[in-house]
Amino acid sequence: MEEEKTETNEKTENSDDNSEDKVEKVEENDKDSRVGAPEEKIERRLVIPGEVIVNGDDYLPGDFTRREGDDVIASKYGLAEIRGRLVKILSVSGVYEPRRGNTVIGRVSEINFSGWQIDIGGPWRAFLPLNECPRFINRNNIEDFATIGDVFNIKVWGVKTGSVDLSLKSRGLGKLEDGRIIKMNCHKVPRVIGKEGSMINLIKDKTGTEITVGQNGYVWLKGELEGTRRAEEAIRLIEKEAASEGLTQKIEDFLEEKK
Amino acid sequence: MPYTKRSDGRKMDEIRPMRAEVGVVPNADGSALFATGGTVAIATVYGPKELHPANKRKPDRALIRCEYNMLPFSVTERARPGQSRRSKEIGMVTENALAAVVDLKKFPQSVIDVQVLILQADAGTRCAGINAAAMALAHAGIDMKEMVSSISIGKIDDKIVTDITKEEEDYHEGEGPTDIPFTLTSRGKECTHLQLDGKIQTGRFKESIDAAIVACEKVLDVQMRALKGEIVNEGEEK
Predict the structure, then answer these.
(1) pLDDT value, residue B167
(2) Which of A1, A33, B27, B128 would be a feasible disulfide site paired with B41, CB 3.0-4.6 Å?
(3) Containing H/E element for A189?
(4) CATH of B18-227, one of 3.30.230.70, 3.40.120.10, 3.30.390.10, 3.40.50.2300
(5) What is chain B's mean pLDDT, rounded?
(6) Which residue among A46, A68, A95 places its CB closest to the CB of B229?
(7) Which residue from B50, B62, B138 is facing A49, i.e. has the nearest CB?
């Protein structure tokens, strides 16, 4: 699966010169972006584990599929997609699966002598060591830099069995002051960002809220009470209607109406 | 008097009207409801998530923990809430029935928690629980080789019947009641769980397994339809 990249708040966007191609990658995973594209529409359908997706020697089993004799079988519940010869399943549910290079949002849950334990969701514990911080930190006063409950926009540096290493040493990362976190289905994050960030920018503009979406499905919101509330409602709506078309228009109407 | 007709008028190989739905507990990573007649089970799945205490972690695979419980009002005589010998056993059996199809290698050192609750009991609760749990696992996006479907087959007097009710379970004339809960995988058609409560002749046992395999197909169809977004309701609730 291609990696979807995080759309961060304005400050981050400007400082990150890679943000352009990051957004383009999001586009590849976005259904709306393919509407009107020259290639034919790719058919997707829900499959359950053990179901035969296609039959025939021509097909290659991709993500979450396997071959048994002539059949390509689903090994997961999700949307089966056949693109050319490649058959794969796109997840629609489930916990966040950490990948190296993901930008996520996490909250400090524990502090020890060598760094911070950070809750980013997913099956494993995530750790931010002292030396992955952008500036010098006095070992005796770790809490001066970050204490329990602080929220970070942070990068997954490495994934080992049973643990995840985090880093702050990259542009656009750092502590998110104030605001609050909502949790959403991480598989729907590309829809919340939209084509070239269209959806997230729409929500930001219409609600006057600062929003940062982590690839782990944690969303950080900051702004006026009313604005953040509407932004949250919009995100919930996108989550619910992720499969429908013309979603950006729908959300625009929704936000107009709520005004 | 020989058992010639079922008390609810069903055919010998007929399953009670089934009901199934996924996503009944929005907070959980995956959830499902499965009911046959008066037996209603819901299951939730949380995880894979970090496992505590750390000494329970498996270095090479995830742990799957199943818990089965009956709600106090699920039976006429109030069931005391909390773990009992019976619920522990059924939890273990559920765990074994499901672990065979779940890919535990994907997230080592983590845990998948499965909770099964019986809302209403009219025999065959463990089977309904396994059916709901299998749907909830799939719904939670957990890697699975295939699904499992479960059914309880009974021998009431000398008749092999599918999906027995409490009333049938209590039929003590003639050869008496025998209950055989049975779980089958959807693709490999392998048995991941089989219990037997009562007495049965070897020949009749083979007959009941054949009946179970046929019934599991029907259960699978309902599970599949529910997972594909349909709210399955085959009939009036009892």
Answers:
(1) 93
(2) B128
(3) helix A189-193
(4) 3.30.230.70
(5) 94
(6) A46
(7) B138
